[in-house]
Amino acid sequence: MTTQMTRLSSILFDMLRDRTQIDNIVILSDGVDEGGLIGTFLGKYRRLVNPNLLFVNVDLSGAKCSVSSSSDMYQHPNDVCIAGYSEQILRFVAERGNGGQLNHVENIDKAYGLQSNQWQS
């Protein structure tokens, strides 16, 4: 297991142990879930803490949409997997949440001191 996956495992399972209430998890990945970590966490977290957790995996490699070889991945109606990257994908992820994400995305240029591009959808 890589250092990043070990760190992610520690964070996720600490939240599970402490029964930390979270509504949304968004993972930007390369499509690899070493050892089925994400699938295992999602199953346990939904069973013990929040059955309505929204899980979004954005596979930035664009090659496939699979963070796990586990047969139960993406079987829950609140599991979303998107391959690739664009502004529309970011907006979709933000709109699936409770509104706070959309506000963040719409104001990200201000948060990082970037020049704002005006575009209309």
Low-confidence stretches: 67-71
Question: Which word captures the global form?
Answer: globular
Taking all residues together, what is the mean pLDDT? 76
Class from helix and strand fractions:
alpha/beta
Helix content: 25-40%
β-strand amount: 5-15%
Count of alpha/pi helices: 5
Q: How far is it from the N-terminal to the C-terminal residue, by CA?
A: 41 Å
Number of beta strands? 3
* Gyration radius over CA: 15 Å
Instruction: State the major sheet.
Output: 3 strands, parallel
Please tell me about this protein's structure.
This protein has 121 residues and is α/β, with parallel strands linked by helices. Helix content is 40%, strand content 14%. A three-stranded parallel beta sheet has the order 1-2-3, with helices on one face. Helix 2 (37-48) links the parallel strand 1 and strand 2. The protein is globular. Mean pLDDT is 76; it is low at 67-71.
